[in-house]
């Protein structure tokens, strides 16, 4: 009998805790919109410290050559310095995927360009691989024809 009375009481209490749909009123300072707009303008003008461009950085799918990989962060940065001393014009990228650091170089549009660099680097760096990934579009040189 006690169980039946408890169930009846619970049955009548459930609607008391039900929630109705309400309205949400957003109150914000109008300066927030202007800050968001300024942030969007700044993002369009971002200049990467390794790539000096006048316009925005355009990403596309291309190729990079992996020069080094290892679990030691310090060793990866040493290899990056060694590579930059030999090829200062090529961009280098270090990524970390647990447990290794990867040093990849270049922004090549075609696999053939990456293969040429790989053949040139083969005597200097023992483990070289070509990877297809999103790259920063290289700056095209202007010709006066």
What key attributes describe this structure?
alpha+beta; 4-stranded antiparallel β-sheet
Note down, in words, how this protein is organized:
A hairpin with a 2-residue loop joins strand 2 and strand 3. This protein has helices at residues 2-17, 31-44, 73-86, 111-121, and strands at residues 59-70, 92-97, 100-108, 129-136. It has four helices and four strands; from the N terminus they run ααβαββαβ. The protein is 38% helix and 24% strand. It is elongated and about 90 Å long. It is α+β, with helices and mostly antiparallel strands and 145 residues long. It has a four-stranded antiparallel beta sheet, covered by helices on one side.
Round the mean pLDDT to the nearest integer and report it.
80
How helix-rich are the residues, as a percent range? 25-40%
Strand residue percentage: 15-25%
How many helices in DSSP terms? Answer: 4
H-E order: HHEHEEHE
Report the radius of gyration as a whole number of Å: 29 Å
In angstroms, what separates the terminal alpha carbons?
100 Å
Shape: elongated
Report the sheet with the most strands, covering strand number, pairing sense and barrel closure.
4 strands, antiparallel
- In the predicted model, the low-confidence regions spanning at least 5 consecutive residues are 47-52
Summarize the SSE layout with pairings.
Layout: H1 2-17, H2 31-44, E1 59-70, H3 73-86, E2 92-97, E3 100-108, H4 111-121, E4 129-136
Antiparallel strand pairs: 1-3, 1-4, 2-3
